Amino acid sequence: MAPTLCHFILSLLFLGLLSPAFSLETIHNDDDLLLSSILQFPKTQAQDLIRALNLFPKHDVNTAQGDHSVTAPRIVEKSFKFPYLGDFGTSVKDLGHHAGYYRLLHSKDARMFYFFFESRSSKTDPVVIWLTGGPGCSSELAVFYENGPFHIAQNMSLQWNDFGWDQVSNLIYVDQPTGTGFSYSSNDEDIRHTEEGVSNDLYDFLQEFFKEHPQYAKNDFYITGESYAGHYIPAFAARVHQGNKNKEGIPINLKGFAIGNGLTDPEVQYKAYTDYALDMGLIKQSDYNRIGKLVPRCEQAIKLCGSDGGNSCMAAYLVCNSIFNNILSVAGDRNYYDIRKKCEGDLCYDFSNMENFLNQKSVRNALGVGDIEFVSCSSTVYDAMIMDWMRNLEVGIPSLLEDGIKLLVYAGEYDLICNWLGNSRWVHAMEWTGQKEFVGAPSVPFSVDGAEAGLMKNHGPLTFLKVHDAGHMVPMDQPKASLQMLKRWTEGKLSMTEEEGGLAPL
């Protein structure tokens, strides 16, 4: 048996995930079978999560051949109008909707797909980029079900979203990492495994995007997203800030970054699972005591991942996710994205219309993606990022705060998988010069139309907001509140009351 495999199995034995009955002789005799079953677990987990959304992508990852010619442009973009949006007397030019491919600078053959929706209000509004998590889920989930300009009706037509974030911003959605959504490559080496690779790709894309749209280059710029983007967003924000400091290219007017129901500091957040589950009545005290025995092993595993990397990070993923899976086994058919709801069989949400819509030939033609088929969520990309999963991305945030870059962490109160309690704890535990004042700051109501829509705490550039009556996808569950949140935050008025801010209705 290879030393790396032996070390990996011993790590699992040490952390208590495998029974001591697995002797080294047994492992040696069955190492291929054992290793295969262990290494297949993340991909199986990913497929279960994808099926829970009623998504069945035909491919595990998007692969295709790109244009290798020296004269091929770095970015190819077209204005478009969806064929099923209806006729509102608007032209393609009036809509300001764009779709494009960016040829990744540091890749063999990768192309990154993106949507760009110009603001419906003013071209001087901030530029906001949205990143969906997964890892490996397309940002089109947000375009059509959360904060994009439109929603998909049951008859497959599109309806305008009155609370789309393009009401107050120039909005970019990116399919990333490579292999997600309509993004593709013909070379497996272009699949990303680390935040360094992900953030470099996004930074390079922004540089080319602002060359293509120089009229937006000086606008305020904000990074937003949810779920596993709790990893992407801090890494990307740090990369943009570094590029600005080093004068690497076009200066990007980064003002802030927002993480919605994200996974950012796993050691803190995984410890919160049992507390949240008990508080919300998902488990009983006896379950809490039993499952809680896994928590110290998870903490130790994450520390090993942080110091050793490699196989220790795979072991940490397996050990820590056993906490979540044990809670689910007790909770039964609860929707782990919104515990107020139940799942029917494997189905927790039905986002299948998105796949059906985007794979129509007329829609693909409108977007200029040709024969590329849409991969809603890629289990291959998910699997490739496993070694990154248990990394702590909180560590790079304090230096951004110290330089005046704003951070908003918001979370729907009924989400289990990236729950508000774990997010609140890592935000409060983060060490920076304003930590004491932030911890001591009062929680105040976040009100929309005179009604309390959440509870908020703020000091300086840091804000935490627990959103009422929302699960994992806050812009889907509370569209008006999420739009007000974005508007006030980008205007520097989020910590004010409606009366203090003099906010006009949208």
UniProtKB/TrEMBL annotation:
One of its GO terms (cellular component) is extracellular region. It is found in: Secreted. One of its GO terms (biological process) is proteolysis. Its EC number is 3.4.16.-. InterPro entries: AB_hydrolase_fold, Peptidase_S10, Ser_caboxypep_his_AS, Ser_caboxypep_ser_AS. Residues 1-23 form the signal peptide. GO terms for molecular function: serine-type carboxypeptidase activity. Keywords: Carboxypeptidase, Disulfide bond, Glycoprotein, Hydrolase, Protease, Secreted, Signal. Belongs to the peptidase S10 family. Probable carboxypeptidase. This is Carboxypeptidase.
